[in-house]
Predict the structure of Carbohydrate ABC transporter permease.
Amino acid sequence: MSTLSTLPTAQPGTDRILKRRRIRRTWGQPWLYLPLAGALLLMIAPFLWMLSGSFKPEADIRSVPPVLLPTAPTIANYGELFSTLDFTSMFANSVIVALAVTAGNLIFCSMLGYALAKLEFRGQRAVFLLVLGTLMIPGLVTFVPLYVLVSNMQLTGSMLGLILPFLAGPFGVFLMRQFISTLPDELIDAARVDGCRELAIFGRIILPLTKPALATLGIITFLGSWNNFLWPLVVAQNESQYTLPVGLALASSGQSFTRFGILLAGAVVVLLPVMIVFLLFQRQFIAGIATTGLK
């Protein structure tokens, strides 16, 4: 008997049913894409308005009804921004503070996260509950006590006063603890059997495996430190210690009105480093967010 006779034959009308399903799926996709495109446009609209406004004259920005595109595009706002601000010094201050705070969080939060996830010690649960409790407290509640503490340590008016209070945060500890807890204990046990100490285990095994979580924590911390306005405004005592957000706010405030053109141009300049950092580490950022907390 021929083997061809044993093969299943298609039922009559199967091809037509499949064709109809493909047509319905093709026609149904635009109805899914339209709301997604609308949500995307709604999200990026402020950024497009900021970019367009940075090239507008002040009259276009204040016109009623609003003008979407500049009638006479100009880069005068950027020129006035760089001539008004000590841009090099403020940019350097922002970079130093953001990088130092990010590096501190990556080191200390990952250390404490490893201790809470893989080490057993007395009071481990209490420490983790304390971290969770600190995570729930708004930052404005601790702002005044933190300032009093920094002032008593005579760190106001110094770069150390801008960096030291933020070298570790409860969110970073929680994020790293959740990610490290997903790693198999067998790797750590095998390293201990081979004679590795805890610091070597942390540096050689844990850190290479936590790159997605480190990238996520680094981007979030860098973004928060780069855009921090209130703390540098209060702690910095002179213009040489101002960061970009503080300098931009002071430069855009005129005697009787706010110069929105300079403010929008400065916002574009402040946004660029954050966009570059995110584009460089977006794959690790997405992986860290997607896998954190999975066991």
About this structure: The two ends are 54 Å apart (CA to CA). The domain at 94-242 is CATH 1.10.3720.10 (MetI-like fold). Confidence is low (pLDDT under 50) at residues 1-8.
